[in-house]
Each structure stands twice: as C-alpha cells, then as structure tokens.
C-alpha cells in the first residue's frame, strides 16, 4: 500500500487501519489504490462505495450518504453526484468513525 502519490507514511498507516477495520466488519468489500486515490467497492454490487484521497497530513473520504444524514459530514466539493458527502480524517481518532461511515455507505448501496 504505497502507490498513492500524495500520501505519507502517516496517512498510509491510517489507510491500512481503515482497510483492516472495514474488512473485519464486511469481508465482501474490496479495497484498491490508484495514483491519487483509494477506493472501497462492494463485492456484491460491484459499485464503488467510498473514495479516499490522502495527502501528507489528512485523508478526504467521499461517500454516498447525504450531507444532512450525519452531523460530522459536509457537502462535497466534488462533481460526483453519487459521492455528495465529505468527511475529513485528520487524526487517528477519526479512524473508527471513518469505518462506520464506509459501512453506512455500503449498507445504502446494498439497499439501492
């Protein structure tokens, strides 16, 4: 897991912890990385359920939950209509919350 260009050792460690936490809860979620992004994809629907954009000190999580569904997520500046919400991971304390949000996005994807 060292393929993401803008990431650092810190954010790669966070990504590893997020990946491990998600896979402990739902094994059918597939993790992969490309140049600037990591993604979680449903092994059931074959749709992406979350995008992560790490840099040196933080990770932006783009998810399919509505920005008004949870108090700690914001409207995404992204043009992706499916990923209208943004959660910023800027400390290790936010990893558990990140895992919860990815699972919620997965559950929403399965229902649709």
Structural notes for this entry:
The chain has helices spanning 9-25, 95-111; strands at residues 29-34, 37-42, 48-54, 59-63, 74-75, 85-89. Helix 1 (9-25) packs across helix 2 (95-111). The chain has two helices and six strands, in the order H-E-E-E-E-E-E-H. By secondary structure, the chain is of the alpha+beta class. Strands 1-2-3-4-6-5 form a six-stranded antiparallel β-sheet, covered by helices on one side. The mean pLDDT is 91.
Distinctive features:
single chain, 112 residues, alpha+beta, six-stranded antiparallel sheet, 30% helix
Overview in brief:
This protein has helices at 9-25, 95-111; strands at 29-34, 37-42, 48-54, 59-63, 74-75, 85-89. With 112 residues, the protein is α+β, with helices and mostly antiparallel strands.
Overall mean pLDDT stands at 91
Q: Compute the number of strand runs.
A: 6
- Strand order within the widest beta sheet: 1-2-3-4-6-5
The whole-angstrom Rg is: 13 Å
Note the gap between the termini: 31 Å
Summing up helix and strand content along with how strands pair, one would put the structural category as: alpha+beta
Shape: globular
The level of helicity is: 25-40%
Q: Which range does the strand content fall in?
A: 25-35%
Number of helices: 2
The biggest beta sheet reads:
6 strands, antiparallel
In the predicted model, the low-confidence regions spanning at least 5 consecutive residues are none
Order of helices and strands: HEEEEEEH
């Amino acid at each position: 897991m060292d393929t993401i260009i803008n990431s650092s050792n810190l954010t790669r460690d966070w990504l590893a912890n997020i990946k491990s936490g998600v896979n402990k809860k739902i094994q059918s979620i597939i993790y992969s990385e490309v140049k600037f992004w990591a993604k979680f994809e449903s092994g059931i629907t074959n749709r992406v359920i979350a995008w992560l954009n790490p840099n040196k000190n933080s990770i932006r999580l783009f998810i399919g939950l509505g920005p008004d569904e949870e108090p700690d997520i914001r409207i995404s500046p992204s043009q992706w209509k499916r990923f209208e919400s943004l959660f910023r991971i800027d400390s290790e304390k936010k990893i558990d919350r990140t895992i919860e949000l990815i699972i919620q996005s997965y559950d929403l994807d399965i229902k649709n």
